[in-house]
Amino acid sequence: RGAATRARIVESASELMLARGVAATTLDEVMAASGTGKSQFYQHFSNKTDLVREVVAYRANRILTREQGYLDRVDTLGGLDRWRVAVVQRVTTRRGAHGCELGSLVSELADQDEDARVALARHFASWETLLVAALERMRDKQVLRDEADPRTLATGIMAALQGGYLMAQMAKDGAPMHTALEMAFDHLRSYAASQ
Fold first, then answer.
1. DSSP letter at 149?
2. Confidence of residue 2 (pLDDT cuts 50, 70, 90)
3. Sign of the CA dihedral 13, 16, 18, 20?
């Protein structure tokens, strides 16, 4: 029962912080949204900083689970392109709203909370590692030429992805995400092994 209450608080906080931002979300609002009282809240969290760190972990787990589901099977350019299309569709469906669930936390927390910044950097590294592994599989299968550097290519794709989230959020349109990822993929395709 205690674990369910804790999970409800974290989920409610995550939703509120995504819609309003971390700074603008109050603990009273989190308690109201989660249907919990102060005593219940403080059984699980010592303060807002403690809660924010749990929100970071919660969002990272959701994103990494989803991304792993897509990327763990990828070993062709077509497979990676299907991942790209799914990302663009997700952003287009919500008209860019809220940007990246992790990226939005970086912009709010990285300069204010060193522990949160380190945790976010670790989660982003895990996300990028999923791309690296897919690109390594492609190179191993000779889908990509030997000189392709999976780590460098993955960093470029991640940068395009995060820039695409930001631009799509600003434009309220998925088109900038499509453009950013398409340009990154054009570079990736330049390493395709000749058929």
1. -
2. confident
3. negative
